[in-house]
Amino acid sequence: MRSLLSRRDFLGLSIGAAAASSVPEFQAFASSNESAVKDFPTTTFSSDQTAVRFYSKAVVEPVKILQLSDVHLFIDDERGDEYRQYSERMSKAYNHTRHFESGADTNPQEALKDIANRAKGQGYDALALTGDIVSFPSAAGVDYVKKTLSDVDAPFYYVCGNHDWHFEGMEGTERELRDAWIEKRLKPLFPKDVNPLAYSVKIKGIKLLFIDDSIYEILPSQLDFLRKELADAAPSLLFMHIPLYAPGRRVAFGVGHPEWNAAHDGNYKIERRPRWPEEGHNETTYAFRDEVLRAPNLIGVFTGHIHSYSLDVLNGKPSSVARAANDGSTLKIEVLPYPTER
Length: 342
Ligand SMILES: [Fe+2]
What we know:
342 residues, Purple Acid Phosphatase, chain A, domain 2, 27% helix, binds fe (ii) ion
């Protein structure tokens, strides 16, 4: 496990070394973003739990996004019969919820329908689905998402959570199961011909990055993707399932958390999955978090997983967790041109 001291030293070294030719792994970022580092325009952020607004001099046209996370649909049909032993526990989770606004009894299916109805005609440019949309890889659940969100006059973009692809107790590593069930079940939720583990869309000059961190770890190809995508200095938002580590946060804020390791894995038995590794995160995951925090044009990070709202400001950058949408909760994200000043 890396200590907090060594993490600080590492970050300090990486910033200091950005312009040095002796540290090639940071040089690509430094050279491509040198002017962006110096010149990325003033950007502000404000939040009131159900809506956030960025104002930036780098933005020309307003962009409006609705984030929803952790719907946890549990519906299933005969296509799931042979997998019942793996879906049983999660098929009973979050079956009844209370609507966030009215307090009325509801459930994930009704909550998603309610979200779609409220989103219609509101001028959204996109819906961002940040994982755990289904509680296990249910074909009926995937069909339901597609059908329900097709009523909204905005496209949706999806990235996996740790439950979307997980059949509990099924043999295989998390990477293998994620790849397999994306292919077998979840693919219809992604845009055509993208890499489900890392893709981007550009809307009116704003880049939305979708990176799958649902195994808590980042792959080298995902780190490369992030670096390349950020090199053009477009204002960018990052959407993932599991939040970045922030000092003081519990280990579920897991990407780059120094305590993410076997000793702090309390759920591997109940979730019937491999235990987190003894040695904790790989270097790629730490480097990914550092890169996110350092990039001036990556203006915000939006995640789920925790099920309750939180906001951390990391290196001046908002890192936000959305409430679970299984009670109808959403987060409206607006990226707006900076107001004219005297
Ligand atoms: Fe969840």
